[in-house]
Amino acid sequence: MIKQMNDDNVTQEKIMQIAAKQEALYSKALDDILKNKNKFIDKSRVYDSEIFALEKIIKLNKRLGNKYATIRDEVLVKSYRLLNAQNTMVRSILRALNNMSFEEFQVYMSDMFVKNQEHNAEITNIDYEAILQIDEPSRTLKQAKENIRDYYALLELNGDTLKYLSLFEKKMYRLNKYSNYNLINPVISINNTAIAQQINSVIRPYGFDVVKIIFILLVFAIIYLIRKYLYKEIEAYIFDIESLKKYSKDILNSVRKPIEFIIILINIEVTLYIYNDFAGVGTFDKFFTISYIVLLTYIVYKIVNVISSIKIHEIDTVDKKIKSEIINVGIKIINFIIMVIGLLVILHFAGANLTTVLSGLGIGGFAVALAAKDSLANFFGTLSILLSDVFSQGDWIAVNGHEGTVVEIGLRVTTLRTFDNAIIAIPNSILANQNVKNWDKRSLGRRIKMSIGIKYNSKRENIKNAIEEIRHMIDKHPGIATVNTEYDYSHHKSAKLVSKDDEMGIKRNLLVYLDEFSGSSINILIYCFSKSVNWAEWLETKEDVMYNIMEILERNSLEFAFPSMSIYKENEPSQTS
Q: Where is the Mechanosensitive ion channel transmembrane helices 2/3 domain (predicted)?
C-alpha cells in the first residue's frame, strides 16, 4: 500500500482510499495483537540470525568488490534492524499497559517513540536515492533497488506505526482492560457487527461506542440492584455493634442521604471511567476523592451529633449536675475537631504539603495576623456568626438600625437586602458584636397585640361579657396558637440543654384582659400569637380576629372610643350689686 501511494501515477482519490483501508488494517492488527497479547510478546519475530548471516556476506562481498551486492545486503540488514526496533518498541508498550495509569502510559509511550527515532536515526544515515536512478542491466542492482524500496517503505511504515499507536492509545488501553477481564473477544465481536459499526460511526465523535453504552447501562443496573442490599448490610453492621444499638435507627436515618450521594458519585465516576476508556478521569479524580472525603466527614459529623443529641436528652432527664454550657461547648469542640481533620485530609488529597501547612501556622501565621488584622477580624467574625447560628441566609433580621433579608454570609461581610430593595454590606467583625434581632427564628407563633378602647358610658356587664366572648373566640380560633396547640418536636433533636420552645421559637400565650382607664376610653388588652409565622397568613388571621371583635362589641352594645374631651361648666352663684 505504501508503494502504491508513492507511485507517481496514483490519483488523490486513490490515495484517500488506500489511507482509509490502511487505517482499518492497523485497527484490525491492533485488535488481533491485543487478543493474543501475551503470545505476541513471547513469540515476536526477532531477526538477529538473519542480520548475523548478512553481515558475514557483506564482509565477503566487500573483499570481492561486489558493490551492488554489498548495498543490497546492507539495505536488507537495515530493514531487519528497523523491524527489530519496531518490534522491541511495540512489545515494551504492550508490557507497560498492565503496570501503569493512563497518564504514566502516555509518558512511557512517548519515551519509547523517542528511543525508536534515535535508534532509526543511526540506521538511516545514508541516502540511497542515487542508486535508484542508476540504469544498468544488472540482476544484483535490480535486487538492491527492490531492497531499497522495501527499506524506504519500512521507514514510512515505522512512522505510520508511531502515528497509529498514538491515535489508538486510548483504544489500546481500553482493549487491554477488556483483555484483563477476559472480555476482549466478545467486545471486539460486538463492535465488528454491521449494526454496531453503523451506530459507532455516529456516536464515536462524541467518545462513545456500542460496547461503552452497554457497560454503562450494566453499571447503572448493578449499582441500582446493590444499593438497597448495601444499605441493609450497613444497617445490619450498625445493629451488631453493641455500643451503637440504641442509636442505630437515628444514625441510619441521618446517614441515609449522604450514603445515597456517595453511591450516586460512584455511579458517575464509574460511568466517566468507562467513557474515558478506563483511563481515569484526570482532574476529576481529585474532585471525586475530595467529594468522598467531604461526605464521609459529614457522615461522621452526623453520627457524632445523633449520639450526642440522644446522650444530652438522657443527661437532661437523669443528671442535672452537669452544666448545659459545658456540654454545648464540648459538642462544638468535637464538631470542630471533625471538621479540622476532614479539612486536613482534603488538603492532603488535594496535593497540599501538610507539614508545610502546619508549620506555616506558626511564624507565618503571626506575620499574617499583623499584616491582615482587619481581614482576620472579619474572618473570625464569620466563624463566630456561623458557629453561633444566630441567623442564616434568607433570614429576616434587624441589626444596628438596618433591617432586611440576609443575602449571603461571606468571608468578610454579610449582605442584607432591605425591604426597599437596597443592598447593605456589614463587616462580620462588627456584626458579630452587635445585637441582632432575627424574626425568622420562630417555628410557631407570630405576635398579635392590640389595645381596644371602648366608650366610658359602656355598661360594666357588657364589657365583662365582651371580654369573655373575645377570650373564648381567640382560644377557639383555628389560626391562633394556644396551650392546646400541639407541635411536632420529633424532626428537631437539639444537642443543647435549653428550652425547646425558646430555642425553636414557639409561643402560645393568650391574654385578654381589661387593661386601663385612659384619658378617653376604657382599654381592653389583647395579646396572642398566630399559628403561622408567615406574614401574609398572619395578616389574614389578625384581620379575621379583628372582624370577630367588632361583631362581639356590636352584640354587646359597645362602641369604639375615639380621642375626645368633655367640658363641664359649674353653676356659679349670681352676683347682685
A: 332-373
Say which residues have a Cβ less than 8 Å from residue 377's Cβ, sequence separation at least 6: 429
Residue with cell 471538621: 339
Long-range CB contact pairs, 469-474, < 8 A, 24+: 469/552, 469/555, 469/556, 470/512, 470/524, 470/526, 470/548, 470/549, 470/552, 471/510, 471/512, 473/545, 473/548, 473/549, 473/552, 474/510, 474/512, 474/526, 474/528, 474/545
Whether the CB-CB separation of 186 and 172 falls below 8 Å is answered with no
Pairwise CA distance, residues 309 & 327, whole Å: 10
Closest alpha carbon to 544 in 458, 480, 468, 497: 480
Listed residue (467, 484, 488, 401) closest to 437, CA to CA:
401
176: exposed, middle or buried (Cβ count in 10 Å: 0-12, 13-18, 19+): buried
SS3 456: coil
Helix (H) or strand (E) holding 50: helix 48-64
Contact between residue 308 and residue 331 where contact means Cβ atoms under 8 Å apart: yes
Q: What is the Cα 489 distance to its own chain's centre?
A: 32
Here the cell at position 446 is 407570630
pLDDT (tens digit per residue) in 212-263: 888 888 888 888 777 777 777 777 776 666 656 666 777 777 777 888 888 8
Beta bridge partners of 527: 449, 511
Residue type, 52: F
Q: Using an 8 Å Cβ cutoff, are 108 and 89 in contact?
A: no
pLDDT tens-digit series, residues 517-553: 988 899 999 999 988 888 888 899 999 999 999 999 9
What does the radius of gyration of the chain's CA atoms come to, in whole angstroms? 44
pLDDT band for 436, please (50, 70, 90 cuts): confident
Cα(349)–Cα(342) distance, rounded to whole angstroms?
A: 11
Closest CA to 96 of 82, 81, 110: 110
H or E segment and range at residue 19: helix 12-35
